[in-house]
């Protein structure tokens, strides 16, 4: 187990890639705080799965659009664990559309969840992470391309990448590493047949010839969270099967 005795917080862990990240970190020995926004039942299902497999986890809710709840999230995690070794900024909103007609309220929500919340989490992590801690942020391979209707989403992800680059320089003296993981098209429990059909032409250009799986991303995150990645910091790792 490469994460034994580690304590991790995974945001947006009630479903999708975050759910699998939480399970993977727990399987590697970490105690995991499973954050959820609105899906409390699903978060408790994740905790039950981890516990049944012999791991340790607890569910904790917070509306990441509200700064005071981000602070409360950290308070709850520190109260439960007494320390924090790994922060995984996974939670995010994805709404696509042309810039010309993009709804300002949706834009504000995207900024709140995709940029402000990770910023606050990184700031709090900088204050509370143990020596040799880890910060891992989920960005997107879309930051490495320019696609119509995806500009706003990609911009929010690019913003948190830059925050991570800066933080890696600021926390390096404490042995804390900060990295970004950039998934390509990845199947999750929220995948629909319509989405699969729309992404099929993209996947056809992927050298490994398939959609990514949540486990593919979770394994990269687990590596970066471990001591094996002690010499890796300030990086954006594209996990897209060679697409980018």
From TrEMBL:
The keyword Oxidoreductase applies. Keywords: Oxidoreductase. InterPro entries: NAD(P)-bd_dom_sf, Sc_DH/Rdtase_CS, SDR_fam. GO terms for molecular function: oxidoreductase activity. It comes from the Bacteria. The keyword Cell inner membrane does not apply. PANTHER family: OXIDOREDUCTASE, SHORT-CHAIN DEHYDROGENASE/REDUCTASE FAMILY (AFU_ORTHOLOGUE AFUA_5G02870) (PTHR43639), SHORT-CHAIN DEHYDROGENASE_REDUCTASE FAMILY PROTEIN (PTHR43639:SF1). Belongs to the short-chain dehydrogenases/reductases (SDR) family. This is Glucose 1-dehydrogenase. It comes from Saccharothrix variisporea. The lineage of its organism: Bacteria, Bacillati, Actinomycetota, Actinomycetes, Pseudonocardiales.
